[in-house]
Amino acid sequence: MLSRVAESVYWAARYLERVENVARLVRSYNHLIMDIPVGSEPSWSVLVDILEAKDQFYKIFRKETEKNVHSLLMGKEHASCSIPFSINQARENVRITRDVFPEEAWEHINELHLYTIGNRSAATSRRNRLLYLEEIIQTCRAFAGLMQSTASRDNTYGFYKLGQFIERADMTARIVNVGAGDVLDREGEFFAIDPLLWGALLQALSGRSAYRREIGPIVDKDSFIDFVFKSRNFPRSVFFCLNELRRYIGLLPGGDDTVNSVDRIRRRLRRFNSDRKSREGLNLFIDSLQSSLIMLDDDFRSCWFQRSMR
Amino acid sequence: MKLYTPRTNYDDLLTKKGYARRGASRIVRWLRSKSPDVMKRYRDAAELAVKEMGISFTVYSNGSNIDRSWPVDVIPRVISAAEWKRISRGLAQRSRALNKFIHDVYNRRRILAEDVVPPDLVLESPNYQKACFNVVPKFEAWAHICGTDLVRDQRGTFHVLEDNLRVPSGVSYMIENREIAKRTLPELFANQSILPVDDYCSNLFQMLVSLAPGDRRKPCVVVLTPGIFNSAYYEHAYLAQGMGVELVEAGDLFVTDDNEVFMHTVEKEQRVDVIYRRINDDFLDPEVFKKESVLGVPGLMRSWKAGKVALANAPGAGVADDKAIYAFVPAMIRYYLKEEPLLPNVKTYLCRNKPDLDYVLNNITKLVVKPVNESGGYGILVGPHSSASECSRFASLIEADPENYIAQPTLTLSTAPTLIDESIQPRHLDLRPFILKGKKTWVTSGGLTRVALREGSLVVNSSQGGGSKDTWIIEADS
Questions:
Q1: Between A256-271 and A238-251, two packed helices, what is the crossing angle to 10 degrees?
Q2: A264 at the B interface (CB within 8 A)?
Q3: Integer Cα distance of A255 and A300 in angstroms
Q4: Which of B2, B261, B282, B462 is the most buried (most CB within 10 A)?
Q5: Which of B252, B267, B269 sits opposite A253 (nearest CB)?
């Protein structure tokens, strides 16, 4: 398999996973806000923070209103944090690697692209917004299902899975980081709505019922963080993602060094204990987790994608 | 449907009296029996097939790519197998002579020494690549893939309009057109034998494999594309997939110090033996040609000259497809093969010769004038369709630089019935068959038929409103 093709497959998977995650995040945040009494709801800017998109936001808008935040994330295809941007990137990557994907893959992603073009204005009303997000999430899932049920288990599938799980691990870490930061900021002040916020974050990860079965019905900070970081069974936990990465790296040619990098991150995650962490401690840990994911991405590149003379 | 009676020019399906030509009787009968509504349904079915199969060509505009659906007319064009046999022999003959010519001008230069072709015409041509001097490619073959444009004149005789020896495109559409026809008109395929076209990819692959240097077993063949922005990218991907080989871009390849070509894969570097390149000479290797080219692979020419990799088509093959050299192809056939040309050229006036120049200047309103080294229909004057001031502007251009121009009589291209809105009308056609030259010479059954969809127009390019038709070589009339 050509390195360039492998890299494109990897990025197509990353962008698609990102699309689904961002859509899911925005949707659950909308649900949350509807649950909270007027006046005490947290700011819409949390969404922009999670995606590290403050700079992009203020290039286009002045105030962090509900409408502006959504039109950035759903309507601005040139902003790298937006859903249409990621869809375009995924599409361009699939377009040049069409022949290694299952036949319907290109059609699927093309439809997704056409849908976002046709529904740029959906961001403004809450009802249309939720329909839009639902459609995006469904199509992403259909794509994942298509891969699951029709892609042959070759290197293409391996790189697709690497992209999917590294992106998912990163998104989970982001959601915990800024989301948890925001909640911790207000501890005491918003005591009554606290469980709601944790619940919403859990929902953003589609983890409510998994959490209930594994931990119990009450969502609090420490068990939430433990769960989304360290659960072995929940497919969106960071630990689960790392295990999957390890497995798929093992199926690809010559990835021994990258397996070691994944193992280092796993060891650190296992040692991590959320109740002994202060807020700063937690933020620091997540930051270093995110940078080790970036380093892992670098490892992938030098192991498989690099095209200068070795 | 009502058919027309072709009066002024040759028609591929109908005789002057409006009857079906040999081989075309079934199609003509079928056409006559259909109502406009039914024909519309056939057209919709064909358009749907194109969309479903994702057949597109790329137009680059406003900084982004637009994929346009490939335009196909549902009514096939028919050529009888007996006629095609003669034509394909003529095409193979031409390809043999052109390859001998290219090899000769880069090696012994006999034909120039004997002044059969004027030496300055060749050696001063921008398509003559000095870097290719003294190279001996396997089988002495240079133009491995040739797309030759043919047109019928008023009496129906096929003439060669030009030979495309650099990176001719269109073959994937020839194959796809057949696929569309099979999906839309299955009933017409029953009870008549139409020669198949889908053996192209396997023949191309065999030819490319035969070019591999030395006796390398299971040689690695790749298709080199300039990338997604190229208008023929669809075809590059199609051919790579059809042969089951990698589609590579320049960045995927590198050349080592001992002149081997490798590609970057996720396992380890893999040696490449044969490159079907779809990049023009100028951009192929920044070490030798345009230095700023990012589409090319530094060192590729070194490797090719050292015999470590085969390039198809060979660099420099374009020296034989300029419009002035074209006029000498019949002479080449006589010189190298000691045979008479089986396919006629279009009469060509070389303005570099004084008598020709005088004739052209006196008859410019009747002629088509073409610059020697441009391709793709740029800078052409069609005398009968141009204003007097346009003609006199061209006359002064020719006088200023006669070497750079040739002229040909304006041909009355043949037509074929074409579905236009709700009726069937005559539209002008050309034909591009493809000739493969490796160890052996092989010619496609038929080729890509392009049709000018505007009434009276002679422009068949898909980017300028041209369409296409499936081309049927029919074994016997039933």
A1: 160
A2: no
A3: 8
A4: B261
A5: B267
Contact B254 A155 (CB under 8 A): no
Minimal C-alpha gap between A118 and chain B (Å): 17
Instruction: Mark yes or no for CB contact B228/A95 under 8 Å.
Output: yes
Sign of CA dihedral A96, A100, A101, A107: positive
ipTM over 0.90: no
User: Would you write out chain B's pLDDT as a tens digit for each of its 478 residues?
Assistant: 889 999 888 999 999 999 999 889 899 999 999 999 999 999 988 888 887 777 777 665 555 556 677 888 999 999 999 999 999 999 999 999 999 999 999 999 999 999 999 999 999 888 899 999 999 999 999 999 999 999 999 999 999 999 999 999 999 999 999 988 998 888 888 878 899 998 999 999 999 999 999 878 899 999 999 988 888 888 998 899 889 899 999 999 999 999 999 999 998 889 999 999 999 998 999 988 888 878 889 999 999 999 999 999 999 999 998 888 999 999 999 999 999 999 999 999 999 999 999 999 999 988 999 888 765 566 788 888 888 888 888 899 899 889 889 999 988 899 999 999 889 999 999 999 999 999 899 999 999 999 998 888 777 776 667 889 999 999 865 4
Task: Give the minimum alpha-carbon distance from A1 to chain B in angstroms, rounded to a whole number.
Answer: 5
